[in-house]
Structure formats: structure tokens, C-alpha cells
């Protein structure tokens, strides 16, 4: 089996690389032999080949408008049919989760507004965001370590992705930066399943601070699965955030030496990033279990490396 991460326009470089790293460190190499990227042209023109061996297609964070443009009707149809008819597993993270919903309402009423219908329609409702205010492209100013409540993947999901058994909930703080939320009618005290005519939705995780708005879900789509996640458990803070934090620290130090008028603003920004990274570092093990949950919900539990 192979795992693929979409790398076409719209896929953020850090999001793509962190997804590759997380897959390689979580899935048994003896079972999942190759983890690599796939662009829009290959996804469309060589779909008969990659679908033969692909166990998961990850649509990473970034921006979903270029996903719509480059994949178009043909690319989205290929993905949809692979999941629905051939039992494929689509994993959408942040932008990939917006892309996998029927409608997007992102920063509605602001200069960043993106509103419109989407073709994949794995989840037949609206993905709204940002779930937390303050999002700003290419910065960490609106990012935070947000509390997330999630199903324990070791006890709550079996080897083929069925939810049940000894269902229990865990807590972590995960990296959130512009991700969506979904408002579903659900009972957080029981197995969280919402039925509709064509989909079977399981709530995997919620945002307690947002009245338990859904932060991750699994949608049964025909013979396959689509897992949509608002946050970024795949992003290892030590690997992907310590470097930017140190760069911000160096920048602030130069501003101090120059007596720059914006130094107070920059200092507050640095303190915000430092605190966020500190919390994410402290929750590293639980964040990895949230990442394992997403993969297990897609039917890959037996392929996961467990500590």
C-alpha cells in the first residue's frame, strides 16, 4: 500500500511536509511502503494507477480555492468515485476539510471572505470558519493551541474503523489556524452518530470552548471513508514550529537593538507564539493520538505504529 499527500497549488508547503512526516512516522513501513506527494495532473491523468495501491489521500492545509480551480470537476469526480465506489480513504485537514464539505463559509463578511458550494460534498453541510477569530495568512497571529475533546483511538475504534467498544474521551490542545467547524446535532455522552439519507457521520472530536462544535468527523461514503479535521494534529511542534519561533525571536532582538517603534507589538507576538508552542509541546503525545484517531477512523488502525 501507498499513502499520498496532495501537493498542487493551494497546498501549504509546511502542511504538505508535516503530513508526509506524520504519515511516515505513524504507519508501519512494512505495510505502507511509500508515502509521497501527488499533484493535480497526476491525480487526474494517472488515476487508474495511483488508485490501485493508495490507502489514504491527504488533502493538507493551505487554501481550498486553488484546489477547486486545479482539480476542477474532473479531479473532484475522480476523488469522489474512488472513495464511494472503490473504498478509498480521503483525509482532509483544515483547507482539505473545507474542500470536502458541501459548502464553505470562510471569514464571511471580511476581506478574506470565501463563500461557495463545493463539489466533493462528503459532508453535506457547511464548513464555517475560522473557528477561532484572528486568522491571518502566512503568520501565527491567529494561531493557537485550542482544547479538543476526542475519542480514544485505542479503545474506541476497531481495526476496520468501526466506532464503539469501550468508548472513552480524551483531551488535548491542538494547533488551530483558520480551520473550520461544523454544527451537528449530536449527543456528546454517547456514540456520536448522525444519520442522513446518503451519509453516515461519526463525530470524532469537538471544541469544548465552542459549545462542542465538531472539529473532526468521519463520513461513510459508499464503500469508503472521508475524515475531515479542522485542526492540525499532524504538525509536530518541535519539528515545524520551533524554527519559526526562533526566527521571530531573532527578528524581535534586532528590533530591540534598533529601537524600532513596532518592538512592543513584535514582542507581544513573540510571547503569543512562545506560549502556543509551549502548550503544544506539552500535549505532544496526546496530539499524536488524535492523529492516530484520524487514520484509524479511515480503517488503517492495523497499519498504525502504537507506542
Helix/strand layout:
Blueprint lengths: L1 E5 L6 H14 L7 E5 L1 H6 L1 H7 E6 L4 H23 L2 E5 L1 H5 L1 E6 L7 E4 L5 E7 L14 E8 L1 H4 L12 E8 L3 E2 L11 E3 L4 E8 L5 E9 L2 E6 L7 H4 L1 H17 L4 H20 L1 H17 L7
Parallel strand pairs: 1-2, 1-3, 3-4, 4-14, 5-7
Antiparallel strand pairs: 5-6, 7-10, 8-9, 8-12, 11-12, 12-13, 13-14
Helix pairs in contact: 8-9
Descriptive notes:
The chain contains ten helices and 14 strands. It has 307 residues and is an alpha/beta fold. α8 (242-258) runs antiparallel to α9.
Global geometry: globular
What portion of residues belong to β-strands? 25-35%
Oligomer kind: single chain
Alpha-carbon distance between the two ends: 22 Å
Percent of residues in helices comes to: 25-40%
The Rg value, from CA coordinates, equals 19 Å
Task: Summarize the main sheet.
Answer: 10 strands, mixed
Q: How confident overall, as mean pLDDT?
A: 90
Can you count the helices?
10
Low-confidence stretches: 188-199
Q: How many strands appear in the DSSP assignment?
A: 14
Class from helix and strand fractions: alpha/beta
Secondary-structure element sequence?
A: EHEHHEHEHEEEEHEEEEEEHHHH
